[in-house]
Design a protein that fits this description.
Elements: H1 2-31, E1 41-44, H2 46-54, H3 56-60, H4 69-72, E2 77-80, H5 95-127
Antiparallel strand pairs: 1-2
Length: 128
């Protein structure tokens, strides 16, 4: 039971790191909204998590008994969106869309933080 609690905490840690990275990518996109030929960046973590959780080979492979293989294989991926631009200057950043992504990501980050704090509080109660 305690092992699962620490696995959950580690998962929250990875998710918070990914959310932070996503925030950096979005704010970078916003800052470069008027830069000619700039291509927006996105961060994939949820997709990486889904693939890792759905792949039994990843979740069962261990090199050491103390390793958590699922955590080792889940890292956020930064991707340049090189899709066609609707703007003449080659930039594909839509400031309104990016602002919506930023708000969504901030809500996710706050939610993850609250959930992590709740889990840590429960763990502290158990240890006392």
């Amino acid at each position: 039971m305690l092992k699962n609690a620490f696995n959950t905490i580690n998962l929250y840690n990875k998710a918070l790191d990914a959310s932070w990275l996503k925030n950096e990518a979005i704010t970078n996109n916003i800052a470069n909204a008027n830069t000619p030929n700039y291509k927006r960046e996105t961060v994939e973590f949820e997709e990486v998590l889904k693939r890792a959780m759905g792949n039994p080979a990843i979740s069962m492979t261990k090199t050491n008994e103390k390793h958590m293989p699922l955590m080792n294989n889940m890292n956020p991926v930064v991707i340049k969106d090189k899709s066609t631009s609707f703007r003449k200057d080659g930039n594909n950043v839509n400031i309104d869309t990016e602002m919506a992504y930023l708000a969504e990501n901030q809500i996710k980050y706050e939610t993850l933080t609250k959930q992590l704090n709740s889990n840590l509080k429960r763990l502290r109660i158990v240890m006392e």
